[in-house]
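Hey L., structure's done. Input below.
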Amino acid sequence: MGAGNAVGVGVIGAGNISDTYLEHLTSFPDLEVHVVGDLDLDRARAQAEKHGVRASGDADAVLSHPDVELVVNLTIPAVHAEVSSAAVSAGKHVWSEKPIGIDRASAAALLDQAAAAGVRIGVAPDTVLGPGLQSARRAIARGDIGRPLFAQTTFQWQGPELFHPNPGFLYARGGGPLLDMGPYYVSALVHVFGPVAEVAALGQRGTDIRSVQVGPLAGQSFPVEVPSTVQVLTRFEEGGQAQSLYSTDSPLLRQGIVEISGTEGTIVIPDPNTFGGRIAIVRPLASLADAGAQEWIDIEQEGVMVGRGLGALDLARAVRGGHTHLASGEIGYHVLDTLLAIEESVEQGGFVPVESTVDVVGMMPADFDPFMRTV
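Output:
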C-alpha cells in the first residue's frame, strides 16, 4: 500500500494535462502515485521521471499494478468510458477527466459496472470543489443574494489551436467548445441550482476546416465535426434559469464569466476552469443616479488553494472514510446527459428534456486541507 495507508494511484494518459495532475497528486500525503501509463511508452517514462514516479509503461502496467487502488484516467474523451471500464474490471476505483464518456449508453453502463463491482467513479471537473466556487456557494447559502433566479455564463475565444500542439480531437465528436468546456460551466450551475430539467440551443460551425498553429504539426489542417459556437437556454428542476455561450469562433476573448443573480443581488463567481479567484456581490441600485458608481462587495475566499487532482483526493479520502465523494460519476453522467441534450436541441430545435437527475450536491468543508495526512 505504500507509505502508511496512503491510497495507491496509477495514471493512464501522459499528455498535456498530466503535468498539472502529477504535480498535485504527488504532493498530497494521502496519495502515492506508483505508475504512469500511456500508449507512447517514452512519454510515460518521461512524465514518471519528471514527477518522481518509480514505474511507467502502458495502460496494462497501471491496471495490473498491485498497489494501485485508484486509476486517474487522463485519456482523450473518445476512450474515457472504455479505459474507465477496464479499470473497473481490474477492481480499481476511477477518477476520470471530463466528460465521463461521449454517449449515454457507455457512460450508464460504466456506472452500473462500478456499482456491481463495489468501486467508485469520480468525474472532472474538480475545479468546482476549489475555494472559489465553494466560497461562493457558502455566500449563496447564507442568503447573500437572496433567492438565486438566473445565471449568465460566457466562454468565447479563437480556440485551443492557439496553444495545443495537436488540437484536432477537440473538434471531433465528443469535443467542441460544448463538450470540452461545457462540463466546467454546467457543473458549476448544477452545484448552485441543482439538476437540469430541459435545455434549448442554437449552434453553428464558423468553418469546416481548422489548422494547427503551434508545435511540430503547425500548418496541418483538421476537420471540424461539431458546432464551434453554441448558445444555450437552461431550465433547472427547482425553477432557476441560465443562458450560456460556448464559442471558439470569437476574436474577442471573454472566458470564465459566471454571474448569478438573485432577489437581493448578483454574485460574480470565479472562472469555473480555475480553482479560485475574485468573488464579488453587486447590490440593487438605490436610484439611477448611483449607476455609475455601483459598489462591488468582495467576498472572502475560504480554503486552501490547489489544482487538478483535488477531486481524486476527495474520492480517495471518501474511500478510506466510507463517506460520499462530491464529484461523483452520477453528477458526471447528468452533466453529459445535459450536454448531449444541448447537442440534440441544436440538431432538432426546441426544448429537449434532460432525463437524468441528481441529488443536491454537497459542499466541501471550509477547512479541507489537501496537504494534511488524514488516512
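The chain has a mean pLDDT of 95. The chain has two domains: 7-123, 128-298.

-- N.
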